[in-house]
UniProtKB/TrEMBL annotation:
Keywords: Membrane, Receptor, Transmembrane, Transmembrane helix
TM ranges: 12-34, 46-74, 94-112, 133-150, 187-214, 234-256, 268-292
Pfam assignment, any one: 7TM_GPCR_Srh
InterPro entries: 7TM_GPCR_serpentine_rcpt_Srh (IPR019422), Nematode_rcpt-like_serp_H (IPR053220)
Protein name: Serpentine Receptor, class H
Length: 333
């Protein structure tokens, strides 16, 4: 077994990513709570909600569960502290991962819904349906995997079937405590495809209608042109964050479907698809801090102060009227 196929590679890579993501996520949380300007007050708490779910998902995948996947077998060997320190059920851990993943997607969608409601739908019929829609979505996200995990097969039989399904599974992996959550693809993939289709059927129209309303308002000047321009810039930043989600989460999604339908086993790909998913939070936070001007300005100022305190920034000498040089102005990086 080469190193990139091994559980050790998976384990140390995720821990390293978590060490990078944690301070980055905390910085993002700080900016949302304390540097969101008054003009963004109406979106502050949905940004906070989305960021909190993102943090929980990141902590879960890089420390708590760390499920070592063996697709096309519908099973995994959790390597995180919920297993090593607390002995939490593997089934519950996998259920937690899927639930958090799609909660993150729905929380991102709520930001677009907030923009649509605040700007265009406060006095429209949508105001009567938005809260039931939000409650329904959270309920579906929390329960869509229950049919699969309430029908978990006998593990001894399921493990034997898994070894037959992937006869070239390395001996090291065969000795691990694999948790097989399904031997029949239909129930698992049915739930998986259902929740994805359900959320995309809401997400894509919501993005399109919000974008259309903002651009129409700019053209017709039905609202302050400057305000709508700012909202459009905000939406473009949201598009970048949503794009990062789809890139890092739906690319693995396509691979999982391909692996299951073709019985394709590639241990390196199995490791990297989850590493790819685990990178979502860091990428999204970097976009958050760089695309939103108030946050970007604060982050740049903090790095300049840090650079000054560490001696990385040189002080520029400026002569005053008396010819004495003063050093109270800093150059940038």
């Amino acid at each position: 077994m080469i190193f990139m196929e091994s559980p050790d590679f998976f384990f140390y890579t995720l821990h390293s990513m978590g060490a990078v993501a944690c301070p980055l996520q905390i910085l993002g949380l700080y900016c949302i709570l304390f540097k969101t300007p008054q003009s963004m007050k109406s979106v502050k708490w949905v940004l906070f909600n989305a960021h909190i779910w993102s943090i929980l998902f990141d902590i879960s995948v890089t420390a708590l569960t760390m499920p070592f996947l063996v697709f096309p077998v519908l099973g995994a060997a959790p390597l995180g502290i919920l297993t090593t320190m607390f002995g939490v059920s593997s089934d519950f851990q996998i259920y937690l991962e899927f639930t958090l993943l799609f909660t993150v997607l729905f929380s991102d969608m709520l930001i677009f819904e907030n923009r649509y409601y605040q700007l265009f739908a406060k006095n429209k019929v949508w105001r009567h349906f938005r809260m039931p829609m939000i409650i329904l979505n959270y309920g579906i996200v929390a329960t869509f995997m229950l049919p699969t995990f309430l029908n978990t097969p006998d593990q001894l039989t399921a493990t034997e079937l898994a070894f037959k399904q992937v006869p070239n599974l390395p001996v090291e992996l065969r000795s691990m405590n694999l948790s097989i959550w399904a031997t029949d693809y239909r129930l698992f993939l049915g739930s998986f495809i259902f929740i994805t289709s359900f959320q995309l059927m809401e997400f894509i129209p919501l993005i399109l209608i919000t974008d259309w309303n903002v651009r129409t308002s700019i053209k017709k000047s039905t609202q302050s042109r400057q305000t709508m321009q700012l909202q459009l810039k905000f939406l473009l930043a949201l598009y970048a964050q949503s794009g990062a989600f789809f890139l890092t989460c739906f690319t693995p999604y396509v691979y999982i479907l391909y692996s299951c339908f073709t019985n394709y086993y590639n241990p390196i790909a199995n490791n990297f698809i989850f590493i790819f998913v685990a990178s979502r939070g860091s990428i999204s936070t970097i976009i958050l801090l760089s695309a939103y001007k108030p946050y970007k300005k604060d982050v740049v100022n903090k790095f300049q102060l840090l650079g000054t305190s560490l001696g990385c920034l040189k002080k520029k000498k400026v002569a005053n009227q008396t010819g004495i040089f003063i050093t109270n102005q800093n150059t940038s990086f």
